[in-house]
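Long-time lurker. I teach an intro course on protein structure, and each term I like to show students one example going from raw sequence to a predicted 3D structure in token notation. This year I'd like something fresh instead of my usual example. Would anyone be willing to generate the tokens for the chain below so I can use it in lecture? Attribution to the forum is fine with me.
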Amino acid sequence: MVSRKLKPQQLYQACDPAQFVFQTTAELAPLGELIGQMRAFDAVRFGAGIRHEGFNIFVLGPAGVGKRSMVSQLLGQKASAEPASDDWCYVNNFEHPHKPQAMRLPCGRGTDLQQQLGQRVAYLRTAIPALFESEDYRAKAEAIQQAFSTRQESSFKELGEAAGRQHIVLLRTPSGFAFAPTRADEVMAPEEYNKLPDDEKQRVADAIEELQKQLEKILAHIPQWMKERGDQLRQLNRETSGAVVTQVVDELRNRFNDLPQTRAYLDQLQQDMIDNADDFRHDEESANLSGLTVVTRKTFHRYQVNVLVSNGEQAGAPIVSEDNPTYSNLIGRLEHMSQLGALVTDFTLIKPGALHRANGGYLLLDVRKVLMQPFAWDALKRALQTREIRIESLGQMVSLVSTVSLEPEPMPLDIKIVLFGDRL
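-- Reply from a regular --
Happy to contribute to a lecture. Here you go:
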């Protein structure tokens, strides 16, 4: 090897400090890209720009080289220029309560619907009981009850008059009704009745038998009359509550008039409120078990809105990084609560997963962590293939439980997955 002598000025590159406009490098903005990785940077940018189904991104490289930082920075710039994702909610399905209905609303309006509906339900809980305490309602209800009583008493009065013409009286006893012969408007004693001639006894027996048949007809009609009275009272309740319920729901319709799915839901909600007006007249029932008060009837839960995802305060498309990609953390879950020794659930206990939060945007995952979680990889592939998020508990999926649970309506999925991993 030939040695070469270098001059001192060749070992040092001098620069003029006057050319810098900063005092220290802390004043400088961070570099916007990885030095020497322009090909990878362009590949991520190209992959993120493909919005067709089936195109996702795998970022390969050893740990600690800044892969996640580079991708997050690039996606952040891109996502900020994209439209914000919609809100997703679950609401009660009044026809099939075990199949909650998924509802899609523009960004921020899901929370608005939840708040507006909650305020109006609280108002109805005070307004409807006040209507049922009014003099007008009481007068109409008493008129229905009086008509039923008059009809019943009139039938028994006519029967009693018919019996009286045959010297028989209709008696009301603790065990029901009975007929007895009379003399001088007084019930005959058994000894006195036994002294009657046989033909008179036969006449009384035949008359009582005929009257008994008429009584049985009247008694057979009473359940029908009671049903008619109940129908009239229910109709009165619907009419009484219908006006205020319609007024309140119409306000919501006007507010969400541009959303057909929401209008259809409000139509069903209005009808359910009118049909179950009695629920607003009573507080939630509770039971005291060993000093612990447990609510046993959640009357108004069915009128709530479970806002699963809302991006009202976030501009642009969502970017979600899930560090613990378990099956439930990806797909979502159904929570349960203990009630009187049993586990129960409803649509308000549906919780979102990372796919819900990143829907309409980007989901960043470590591929090794996904593969190490039971069922997570298969669930992720199934969601991408079907383009929908279907919430199912692991117990049901592997047939470990057979209890009745919810079947939430699947939500459409529009997402780009970014996996990070090494070559292995």
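Some talking points for your students: The CA atoms of residues 159 and 215 lie 7 Å apart. The first strand starts at residue 57 and ends at 60.
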